[in-house]
Write a structure and sequence with these properties.
With 330 residues, this protein is of the alpha+beta class. It is built from seven helices and 21 strands. Helices cover 19% and strands 32% of the residues. The strands form five sheets. The protein has an eight-stranded antiparallel beta sheet. Strands 1, 2, 14, 17, 18, 19 and 20 form a seven-stranded antiparallel beta sheet that branches. The radius of gyration is 21 Å and the shape is globular.
């Protein structure tokens, strides 16, 4: 149950962020993967062409989302029921690298410099194989680069991917991305303007007031509703400067924050909730993140730690809530 959104600043720079929801608490940390490093994956290994940074599972060079040294940003999102994986040998026979679903983002961020390169090469390089472990969770992917281009990659064809330009700049989960785009047609009447009063015969019917133009915007946590909410919130929000964009992304993504207990999966104890929210500056290659347990935004700079990196570096996320006392004005 994840939601992603891209934002362009007044200066024309591009930023991307996402929420990460799951019903199992994973051990997250920041990670930097250097270039020219051999990454071992479930069924094979590959050498990185570019350094990348992002959120990883504990001491494992496996990025859930991140940014690379070329400014390509992106992440992995749950994609149940529509994924089509095949046996690894069929992938090898086609001359491709077999990957587990959760490994593709790491491969893409360490091997592609741009959205255009993804579009040109992705179906030649890899495919998603059947993997019987936690990394085999069905996934699809979204990427954004410094030019403003965005692309969706879905392993919905056996041994291949369906690739879509993401012109709306938002992303959620199943069904397929193309379905979400068509569904936008059902909400074209939404407006950021207050609905007007009307005269109905001899009765003057008053508007509900401020915000009434958004009546009908879905507020539940299904992927379909979150896609619509993200698309229209992004569409109506004002354009801000580079200094304000990260704050804006967090404000937008706050609309998708799931408190513990609101969404139960199979039992009272099996709950889906927002474990972290991350945002990326594609120009400066900086990650911003806050956790469910700690709303203070923590940062990590790729360029600051890249110079001498020859092996993966890992960074602890502080999960203890931080508070700042007010300062007496006078």
């Amino acid at each position: 149950m994840c939601t992603g959104i891209s934002v362009e600043s007044k200066e024309g720079n591009h930023f991307w962020g996402r929420t990460q929801e799951f019903n199992l608490l994973l051990d997250y940390e920041g990670a930097i993967i250097p270039k020219a490093y051999e990454v071992k994956v479930s069924l094979d290994r590959f050498v990185t062409r570019y350094a990348a940074m992002g959120v990883a599972l504990a001491e494992n060079p496996l990025l859930i989302d991140g940014v690379n040294e070329k400014g390509l940003m992106g992440g992995s999102f749950y994609f149940g029921n529509y994924n089509r994986y095949i046996d690894e040998e069929k992938i090898r026979s086609a001359g491709k690298l077999p990957l587990a679903g959760a490994e593709f983002v790491t491969y893409a961020l360490t091997n592609y410099a741009s959205v255009q390169e993804i579009k040109e090469r992705v179906n030649q390089d890899t495919a998603i194989a059947l993997v019987d472990n936690q990394l085999g969770i069905p996934q699809h992917y979204v990427f954004q680069d410094e030019t403003g281009a965005s692309v969706v990659v879905e392993p919905s064809i056996e041994g291949s991917y369906e690739v879509y330009d993401n012109l709306v700049g938002v992303f959620t989960n199943s069904p397929k991305f193309a379905w979400h785009l068509v569904n936008l047609q059902n909400y074209v009447g939404l407006s950021d303007q207050m609905a007007s009063d009307i005269q109905m015969g001899n009765l003057h019917v008053f508007s509900n007031g401020k915000g009434s133009g958004m009546r009908g915007l879905p507020g539940d946590y299904t992927p379909q509703s979150r896609f619509i909410r993200a698309a229209y919130l992004k569409h109506f929000t004002e354009k801000v400067s580079d200094e304000q964009v990260i704050d804006q992304i967090f404000h937008l993504l706050n609309s998708f924050d799931i408190p513990k207990g609101v969404v139960k999966v199979t039992s009272e104890k099996d709950v889906q909730y927002t474990q972290y929210t991350s945002a990326y500056d594609g120009q400066k290659k900086v990650m911003y993140i806050h956790l469910y347990e700690n709303r203070m935004i923590q940062t990590l700079s790729l360029e600051e730690h890249l110079k001498d990196a020859t092996i993966p570096q890992y960074f602890t996320l502080n999960d203890r809530q931080q508070y700042q006392a007010m300062v007496k004005k006078f």
